[in-house]
Amino acid sequence: EITQLGAELINDDSSAADAEVIATVIDCMLAAGMKDFQIEIGEVDFFKGIMEEANVDKEIAHEIHTYIHNRNFFGLESYIKDLDLMEDTKKVLLNFEQLFGGVDMLENAKKLVTNQTSLDAISRLEKVYVALSYSGFEQYISFDFSLLSHYEYYTGVVFRGYTYGTGDAIIKGGRYDHLVEKFGKKSPSIGFV
Description:
Structural class: alpha+beta
Strand content: 15-25%
């Protein structure tokens, strides 16, 4: 029998709330007896900023998103080579396969983008990292900008928890600031299952 556990933090759109929920995930995994696990954290606004700056239509943005989500970087390279994109945009898209790793990767990502949305996404992840470091959780954290979801309701930080012996993430979560609004209340939220 599979039991699922989830939690949500509602009415707080801060990076501190992001860090609190991710810290809760780590605490849950440690309480369950896990020692070898990793929480990969991404930020959907990093990709969104690149697409906004490139000013591509939704179909092209969706195709690029799908290639990155599926980690099909060979297909991405082939797809974008004939698109009418600025060379800087092509460069950052072709570097997505390298935009994962420790906190140092965030510095590399800053060198690839100039748009404010993407830079703000990086800054938010840096704040989340600092907050998690205060709890001594940096050993469980990595970053991955190719961590994109097919669910369009995610609005910022997204994360997945992995451990040995499983083929898929055992924890999935992220920020969805406009989802609860569809049910009548404007409430920025972040949660996981």
